[in-house]
Design goal:
alpha+beta, 139 residues, 18% helix, six-stranded antiparallel β-sheet
């Protein structure tokens, strides 16, 4: 099942990520689980670019679900362009999407994926409305 990425999304961040030798598995391609690590790193870099820490404090942005559409196999060596987009912004959540392509063929997507992130009060373990300063940066 392929999950469709919405057309209505806002580009917010771009980064480069090297494919490491250890990212490959016995089939000599990047293991499927590593694509999720690439997307995680893209989210972390985007969150820190906003001026927030990903280390837990009293509140934090946490992932509650994620998916990846694998479009082509990746192998070492190579460098990826990871682009992050914001989709729907809810009262306590935001949909993020990540595209990845090799720098040698940036128009040919290797994978696209997404995650729903929720603002959480870490003392109660429950979702909380976005603080106004975070909401301004998301918009």
């Amino acid at each position: 099942m392929r999950i469709e990425i919405p057309q209505d999304k806002k580009f917010v961040h771009e980064m480069l990520m090297p494919i490491r030798w250890g990212d490959m598995d016995a089939y000599r391609h990047v293991n499927n689980t590593v694509y999720f690590r690439y997307m995680e790193q893209a989210r972390v870099e985007w969150i820190t670019s906003l001026g927030y820490e990903v280390a837990p404090g009293k509140e934090s942005m946490l992932m509650i679900n994620g998916f990846c559409n694998f479009l082509q196999q990746l192998t070492y060596p190579g460098d990826l362009i990871l682009k992050t987009y914001i989709g729907n912004i809810g009262r306590t959540s935001v949909d993020l999407f990540t595209s990845m392509a090799l720098t040698t063929s940036p128009d040919d997507l290797a994978a696209v994926g997404g995650a729903t992130m929720v603002w959480v009060d870490l003392n109660t373990g429950k979702s909380a409305p976005w603080p106004e300063d975070v909401l301004k940066k998301l918009r």
